[in-house]
Amino acid sequence: MEMDWKVVSVVITVFDKILFDVYERWQKRIDARRRIVLKYGDEVAIRACDSTFVQPNSENILIGGISNVAKWEIYEIVDPADPFSYSHNRKVCYGDSVAFRSIKNRKFIGVDLENSNLLKAWAPQVEDWEIFVLIAPPDSVKKGKFVEYGKGFALKAVNSKYVMYNCSEDLSLMATVSHIRKWEVFVFIDPPHPK
To answer: How far, in Å, CA of 140 to CA of 151, rounded?
Structure first.
């Protein structure tokens, strides 16, 4: 019995393509699962309660009302004790103290205690007013202590107040309230990463 090598070649090519497709789908699932939990050094976009994104304006005051994510809406989440090193690749947990560095101007986000407690992208290093505590919203169904993309969070500032989104007035973010309601809940979004 003689083998038709053209048929064998086609079968091998088809089989190879099927295996590659299966592997590629499997790898995408693994990558997606890996990206769900935030780690220090990850880039995030912050979505407010009205489904708009947060960015520093021309005066570096954080405002919402932005409909899409570009470089100006991306922040790096860092450990305030070690804001320039990510070698430990630690996961971010609710209750952690965190700091945020704006990708737009490479400055850390802080509370301007002398200007209505507005949040600003203004500091070259992390001081007390650039440190926030990540809080799970009271009505959230928390399945674990790790902070994930797409899950709600609130931020408690150095003045023991929660960060709120002033969506009815000037769209600013400020640390002025002692409760967590819808205006104090934000969501981390995995930002697009242009190639």
So the answer is: 9
